[in-house]
Design goal:
This protein is 40% helix and 15% strand. α6 packs antiparallel against α7. The chain is an alpha+beta fold. The strands form 4 sheets. Strands 2-3-5 form a 3-stranded antiparallel β-sheet.
Length: 285
Protein backbone atom coordinates (compact mmCIF):
# COMPACT_ATOMS: atom_id res chain seq x y z
CA UNK A 1 0.00 0.00 0.00
CA UNK A 2 1.42 3.45 -0.88
CA UNK A 3 2.82 5.51 1.97
CA UNK A 4 0.84 8.63 2.91
CA UNK A 5 2.79 11.76 1.99
CA UNK A 6 2.96 14.68 4.39
CA UNK A 7 1.36 17.86 2.95
CA UNK A 8 3.73 20.53 1.68
CA UNK A 9 4.51 23.59 3.87
CA UNK A 10 2.28 25.70 1.61
CA UNK A 11 -0.70 23.41 2.19
CA UNK A 12 -0.04 23.20 5.95
CA UNK A 13 0.08 27.01 6.10
CA UNK A 14 -3.26 27.27 4.28
CA UNK A 15 -4.88 24.75 6.64
CA UNK A 16 -3.50 26.52 9.73
CA UNK A 17 -4.67 29.92 8.47
CA UNK A 18 -8.10 28.52 7.66
CA UNK A 19 -8.49 26.98 11.12
CA UNK A 20 -7.51 30.26 12.78
CA UNK A 21 -10.24 31.98 10.74
CA UNK A 22 -12.84 29.48 11.99
CA UNK A 23 -12.98 27.08 9.04
CA UNK A 24 -13.27 23.38 9.89
CA UNK A 25 -12.64 20.26 7.84
CA UNK A 26 -14.75 17.60 9.58
CA UNK A 27 -17.19 15.88 7.23
CA UNK A 28 -20.84 16.92 7.63
CA UNK A 29 -22.15 13.51 6.62
CA UNK A 30 -24.45 11.80 9.09
CA UNK A 31 -23.69 8.62 11.01
CA UNK A 32 -25.49 6.39 8.52
CA UNK A 33 -23.56 7.61 5.48
CA UNK A 34 -21.42 4.96 3.85
CA UNK A 35 -19.37 5.18 0.67
CA UNK A 36 -18.07 2.54 -1.69
CA UNK A 37 -14.29 2.42 -2.07
CA UNK A 38 -12.16 0.14 -4.24
CA UNK A 39 -10.03 -2.63 -2.78
CA UNK A 40 -7.21 -1.66 -5.11
CA UNK A 41 -6.47 1.21 -7.51
CA UNK A 42 -3.79 0.86 -10.19
CA UNK A 43 -1.49 3.72 -11.18
CA UNK A 44 -0.39 3.78 -14.81
CA UNK A 45 0.92 6.61 -17.01
CA UNK A 46 -0.37 9.40 -14.78
CA UNK A 47 -3.84 7.86 -14.53
CA UNK A 48 -5.75 6.17 -11.75
CA UNK A 49 -7.36 2.94 -12.93
CA UNK A 50 -10.32 1.74 -10.87
CA UNK A 51 -11.77 -1.78 -10.86
CA UNK A 52 -15.19 -2.37 -12.43
CA UNK A 53 -18.19 -2.21 -10.05
CA UNK A 54 -18.72 -5.43 -8.14
CA UNK A 55 -16.85 -7.54 -5.66
CA UNK A 56 -13.68 -5.42 -5.76
CA UNK A 57 -15.44 -2.56 -3.97
CA UNK A 58 -16.31 -2.37 -0.27
CA UNK A 59 -18.52 -0.20 1.97
CA UNK A 60 -16.72 2.31 4.17
CA UNK A 61 -18.08 4.67 6.82
CA UNK A 62 -16.61 8.09 6.17
CA UNK A 63 -17.86 9.73 9.37
CA UNK A 64 -15.15 11.28 11.59
CA UNK A 65 -12.70 11.32 8.71
CA UNK A 66 -11.43 14.46 6.99
CA UNK A 67 -11.58 13.78 3.25
CA UNK A 68 -11.48 17.50 2.37
CA UNK A 69 -8.34 18.23 4.39
CA UNK A 70 -6.61 15.19 2.92
CA UNK A 71 -7.78 16.12 -0.59
CA UNK A 72 -6.24 19.58 -0.24
CA UNK A 73 -2.99 17.83 0.67
CA UNK A 74 -2.92 16.31 -2.83
CA UNK A 75 -2.32 19.72 -4.45
CA UNK A 76 1.46 19.16 -4.67
CA UNK A 77 1.62 15.44 -3.84
CA UNK A 78 3.35 12.60 -5.65
CA UNK A 79 1.23 10.23 -7.79
CA UNK A 80 1.33 7.51 -5.13
CA UNK A 81 -0.54 9.79 -2.73
CA UNK A 82 -3.44 10.05 -5.18
CA UNK A 83 -3.47 6.27 -5.37
CA UNK A 84 -3.63 5.95 -1.59
CA UNK A 85 -6.34 8.60 -1.28
CA UNK A 86 -8.53 7.01 -3.95
CA UNK A 87 -8.23 3.63 -2.22
CA UNK A 88 -9.51 5.24 0.98
CA UNK A 89 -12.24 7.49 -0.43
CA UNK A 90 -13.09 6.32 -3.95
CA UNK A 91 -13.12 8.09 -7.31
CA UNK A 92 -14.20 11.53 -8.49
CA UNK A 93 -16.46 10.01 -11.18
CA UNK A 94 -14.86 12.11 -13.93
CA UNK A 95 -16.62 12.20 -17.28
CA UNK A 96 -14.32 10.87 -20.01
CA UNK A 97 -15.67 13.45 -22.45
CA UNK A 98 -15.63 16.62 -20.32
CA UNK A 99 -13.02 15.74 -17.65
CA UNK A 100 -15.44 17.04 -15.01
CA UNK A 101 -17.30 15.20 -12.23
CA UNK A 102 -20.17 13.13 -13.56
CA UNK A 103 -22.62 14.22 -10.84
CA UNK A 104 -23.28 17.53 -12.61
CA UNK A 105 -25.13 16.05 -15.54
CA UNK A 106 -28.65 14.86 -14.71
CA UNK A 107 -29.64 15.13 -18.38
CA UNK A 108 -27.65 14.52 -21.54
CA UNK A 109 -25.68 17.71 -22.35
CA UNK A 110 -25.64 19.06 -25.88
CA UNK A 111 -21.95 18.25 -26.24
CA UNK A 112 -22.63 14.54 -25.80
CA UNK A 113 -23.61 12.02 -23.18
CA UNK A 114 -21.42 11.87 -20.07
CA UNK A 115 -19.73 8.62 -19.19
CA UNK A 116 -17.76 8.22 -15.96
CA UNK A 117 -15.06 5.77 -16.96
CA UNK A 118 -12.77 3.65 -14.83
CA UNK A 119 -9.66 5.72 -15.64
CA UNK A 120 -9.15 9.21 -14.22
CA UNK A 121 -6.20 11.52 -15.11
CA UNK A 122 -4.00 12.69 -12.24
CA UNK A 123 -3.72 16.17 -13.71
CA UNK A 124 -7.52 16.64 -13.34
CA UNK A 125 -7.38 15.36 -9.75
CA UNK A 126 -4.51 17.77 -9.03
CA UNK A 127 -6.35 20.68 -10.63
CA UNK A 128 -9.36 20.16 -8.37
CA UNK A 129 -7.14 19.67 -5.30
CA UNK A 130 -5.34 22.96 -6.00
CA UNK A 131 -8.65 24.71 -6.60
CA UNK A 132 -9.98 23.41 -3.27
CA UNK A 133 -6.85 24.60 -1.48
CA UNK A 134 -7.16 28.03 -3.08
CA UNK A 135 -10.85 28.26 -2.13
CA UNK A 136 -10.04 27.44 1.50
CA UNK A 137 -7.26 30.03 1.48
CA UNK A 138 -9.54 32.68 -0.03
CA UNK A 139 -12.30 31.81 2.42
CA UNK A 140 -9.93 32.36 5.34
CA UNK A 141 -8.81 35.71 3.90
CA UNK A 142 -12.33 36.96 3.14
CA UNK A 143 -13.58 36.02 6.61
CA UNK A 144 -10.75 38.15 8.02
CA UNK A 145 -11.58 41.07 5.74
CA UNK A 146 -8.57 40.54 3.46
CA UNK A 147 -8.49 40.60 -0.33
CA UNK A 148 -7.12 37.14 -0.90
CA UNK A 149 -3.89 36.27 -2.65
CA UNK A 150 -3.67 36.83 -6.39
CA UNK A 151 -2.26 33.31 -6.90
CA UNK A 152 -5.35 31.84 -5.22
CA UNK A 153 -7.76 33.82 -7.41
CA UNK A 154 -5.85 32.64 -10.49
CA UNK A 155 -6.10 29.03 -9.28
CA UNK A 156 -9.87 29.28 -8.77
CA UNK A 157 -10.44 31.16 -12.05
CA UNK A 158 -7.76 29.85 -14.43
CA UNK A 159 -7.26 31.42 -17.84
CA UNK A 160 -7.58 35.06 -16.71
CA UNK A 161 -4.51 37.26 -17.09
CA UNK A 162 -5.32 39.38 -14.06
CA UNK A 163 -6.77 38.22 -10.76
CA UNK A 164 -8.68 39.77 -9.17
CA UNK A 165 -9.99 41.90 -12.01
CA UNK A 166 -11.22 45.10 -10.38
CA UNK A 167 -10.58 47.61 -7.63
CA UNK A 168 -8.51 46.45 -4.68
CA UNK A 169 -11.19 46.45 -2.02
CA UNK A 170 -13.08 43.77 -0.11
CA UNK A 171 -16.68 44.19 -1.18
CA UNK A 172 -19.74 42.11 -1.93
CA UNK A 173 -18.50 41.33 -5.45
CA UNK A 174 -15.48 39.46 -4.13
CA UNK A 175 -17.67 37.23 -1.99
CA UNK A 176 -20.09 36.72 -4.85
CA UNK A 177 -17.23 35.19 -6.83
CA UNK A 178 -16.69 32.64 -4.05
CA UNK A 179 -20.44 32.06 -3.99
CA UNK A 180 -20.43 31.29 -7.72
CA UNK A 181 -17.50 28.87 -7.67
CA UNK A 182 -18.74 27.05 -4.54
CA UNK A 183 -22.21 26.68 -6.03
CA UNK A 184 -20.60 25.29 -9.16
CA UNK A 185 -18.78 22.66 -7.07
CA UNK A 186 -22.07 21.67 -5.43
CA UNK A 187 -23.70 21.34 -8.86
CA UNK A 188 -20.83 19.25 -10.21
CA UNK A 189 -21.05 17.03 -7.15
CA UNK A 190 -24.77 16.41 -7.59
CA UNK A 191 -25.57 17.79 -4.11
CA UNK A 192 -29.32 17.90 -3.56
CA UNK A 193 -31.88 18.01 -0.73
CA UNK A 194 -33.47 14.78 0.46
CA UNK A 195 -36.68 14.35 2.47
CA UNK A 196 -36.97 10.96 4.17
CA UNK A 197 -40.02 9.61 5.97
CA UNK A 198 -41.04 5.97 6.08
CA UNK A 199 -39.50 2.50 5.80
CA UNK A 200 -38.42 2.73 9.41
CA UNK A 201 -36.65 6.08 8.98
CA UNK A 202 -37.45 9.02 11.28
CA UNK A 203 -38.68 12.14 9.52
CA UNK A 204 -35.72 14.27 8.50
CA UNK A 205 -34.45 16.64 5.84
CA UNK A 206 -30.83 16.70 4.78
CA UNK A 207 -28.42 17.31 1.91
CA UNK A 208 -27.05 14.29 0.08
CA UNK A 209 -24.09 14.13 -2.28
CA UNK A 210 -23.32 12.14 -5.40
CA UNK A 211 -20.02 10.33 -4.97
CA UNK A 212 -16.73 11.55 -3.55
CA UNK A 213 -16.71 14.90 -5.34
CA UNK A 214 -20.16 15.75 -4.03
CA UNK A 215 -19.02 15.00 -0.49
CA UNK A 216 -15.95 17.19 -0.95
CA UNK A 217 -18.12 20.01 -2.32
CA UNK A 218 -20.56 19.71 0.59
CA UNK A 219 -17.77 19.75 3.20
CA UNK A 220 -16.12 22.69 1.41
CA UNK A 221 -19.35 24.71 1.35
CA UNK A 222 -20.04 24.16 5.05
CA UNK A 223 -16.41 24.94 5.88
CA UNK A 224 -16.53 28.24 3.99
CA UNK A 225 -19.86 29.03 5.69
CA UNK A 226 -18.27 28.39 9.12
CA UNK A 227 -20.97 25.78 9.68
CA UNK A 228 -20.92 22.28 11.12
CA UNK A 229 -23.94 20.92 9.22
CA UNK A 230 -27.55 21.58 8.30
CA UNK A 231 -30.64 21.61 10.53
CA UNK A 232 -34.23 22.75 9.99
CA UNK A 233 -35.49 25.20 12.61
CA UNK A 234 -38.60 24.11 14.53
CA UNK A 235 -39.59 27.76 14.94
CA UNK A 236 -39.40 29.34 11.49
CA UNK A 237 -39.00 26.17 9.42
CA UNK A 238 -35.90 27.46 7.62
CA UNK A 239 -32.66 25.47 7.19
CA UNK A 240 -29.68 26.81 9.15
CA UNK A 241 -26.08 25.82 9.68
CA UNK A 242 -24.89 24.36 12.97
CA UNK A 243 -21.81 25.99 14.52
CA UNK A 244 -18.55 24.10 13.85
CA UNK A 245 -18.33 21.23 16.32
CA UNK A 246 -22.01 21.56 17.19
CA UNK A 247 -24.01 18.38 17.56
CA UNK A 248 -26.97 17.42 15.41
CA UNK A 249 -30.25 17.52 17.32
CA UNK A 250 -31.14 14.07 18.64
CA UNK A 251 -33.95 12.17 16.92
CA UNK A 252 -37.28 13.49 18.17
CA UNK A 253 -35.74 16.73 19.52
CA UNK A 254 -36.30 20.15 18.01
CA UNK A 255 -33.53 22.23 16.49
CA UNK A 256 -33.59 26.04 16.78
CA UNK A 257 -31.85 28.64 14.62
CA UNK A 258 -30.02 31.53 16.37
CA UNK A 259 -32.78 34.03 15.50
CA UNK A 260 -35.57 31.93 17.03
CA UNK A 261 -33.44 31.26 20.10
CA UNK A 262 -32.88 34.99 20.49
CA UNK A 263 -36.67 35.50 20.34
CA UNK A 264 -37.10 32.90 23.08
CA UNK A 265 -39.12 30.49 20.94
CA UNK A 266 -37.19 27.49 22.25
CA UNK A 267 -37.97 28.40 25.87
CA UNK A 268 -41.64 29.04 25.09
CA UNK A 269 -41.91 25.68 23.33
CA UNK A 270 -40.24 23.93 26.27
CA UNK A 271 -42.69 25.61 28.66
CA UNK A 272 -45.66 24.48 26.53
CA UNK A 273 -44.31 20.95 26.48
CA UNK A 274 -43.91 20.97 30.27
CA UNK A 275 -47.49 22.17 30.76
CA UNK A 276 -48.76 19.48 28.38
CA UNK A 277 -46.87 16.79 30.29
CA UNK A 278 -48.26 18.01 33.62
CA UNK A 279 -51.77 18.03 32.17
CA UNK A 280 -51.38 14.50 30.82
CA UNK A 281 -49.99 13.33 34.13
CA UNK A 282 -52.89 14.81 36.15
CA UNK A 283 -55.45 13.25 33.81
CA UNK A 284 -53.77 9.87 34.12
CA UNK A 285 -53.77 10.19 37.93
Amino acid sequence: MPIRQRPTPETLEVIARARSAGLRFETVLSEDDWVQVPERVALSEARLIFPPPGSLWRDFRIKRRRPLEEFIGLADAEPESFQRYSEEYGRLMLCQLHARPHGRWTVTPAAGACDAGLEEPLDVWRRYARSARAMVSLGADLHRGHLGQVSDWREVFPGHRRAPWWRRSVDTDRRVLMEVVTTDWLAEGGVRPEFRWGHGHPLHFRLVASGLFGRLALDLAFSLALSGGLEVCAGCGKPFGRPPGGRRAATGRRAWCPECKADGRDRKAAARDARARRGASSEAG
